[in-house]
Fold:
Amino acid sequence: MDFRQAIVDFDTEVHLDGQSDDALVRRIRKQKGFRTPRKSVSPATGLGTGIRLRPVEALHQLSFVTRPRYQDDLLDAYLYWGLLRYLGFFTLDHSEPHMPRLRLSEAGRRVTGNLRRVASEEMGIAFGVALARRWFMHTGAGAPSVAVDVDVALDDGRIFGAGAPVRRVAGRRPDYVLVAPAPGSRNRYRFRVLECKGTKSPGYAEPQLASAVEQLDGVAIGKWVPHGLATSIITSEAETCYRAVDTIEGTEPSYEVTPEMIEQPRDFRLEAERPEVLAAEIAGASVRASWAMLADFGSNLEALRNWAPETMLGRTNRRPRVRTTFDTPLGTANGTSITFGFDRERLTVRYGVDASVDDRLAGESAKAVLEAQRTFAGRLGESEVQGWAPESQTVYSATADGSIFSLTLERGR
Structure:
């Protein structure tokens, strides 16, 4: 693998082709077994013909949202081999005018069998969450702080880990609850849901979406069914693109989430037989779970114990890791790193959290965490995302909640 070219490609803004229009909606409704959801299926606002993004942003999202699914004995292997695989999975196609497209590399085309299925699913998550962030912003709801994995953080119907039974409760729910501060308000949040799919076969994307929109009905906040987004990411030999639809209908409420509410719902469960839960419960629990995922991303075990819902603590087995402090264009970050290399090249990947946010997470004041995240989001909004540190061969991706992901390439002498 040419690490240097991989770093350049991952930091290059590309056009990810996509489709979200009335024709797609009609085809989804004609799929066998399609069930009309409680909210109308529509083209996804802002995602009509494609989006611009840097691939490192999608890799950041994948690293963040899937981390809680891996127990500690598998986490190192996942972080190492998963990252290495995806660095060489894509290449840039410059045949189109104006902006390059993503295509499978020769190495990516050679991935087959079960590994190919896993790659398709994980690319569905990586780019699906990235699409959701764009969708949030295009619909005037700001940018989601984090995508909270329903099964891992909130649901008590699935148990992970060796020696524990693995079971799934009845009912179909979306993958993620999207949590975002409501624009112009200090203590109000908006919540939406996301179902991500991935496939290597273009013909399978629409059946996937027909299933996904049904899953969007699976969570209600009070009596409100949240706006939802369903995505299918296609990574075929011919193209890398997406299909997407949403279920936006009616006026979207926002919910008050005070520090006191966040500090209360430690034992929250999202039970299949009680999908309509009180708005205050799911609001506070979702924000708490988003902080626990942030703490886990930066390997801050004290913070993880502070904020993880009981159901997440019961499944997330973590050992202490060596944490370091490193400088970024957005300030100091705390977290962990992993380095691997071949021949005379070394690639260091850092999983960090803004130092101020990280410090506040280790405390017990929800108010202090909220203030630190607002401050960081302000700095992020004023910064140039692309090309932050080309002289050091480091590329960065950061999100408003305080997570910072970076790749640094070093050559030996």
Summary: The chain has 14 helices and 18 strands.
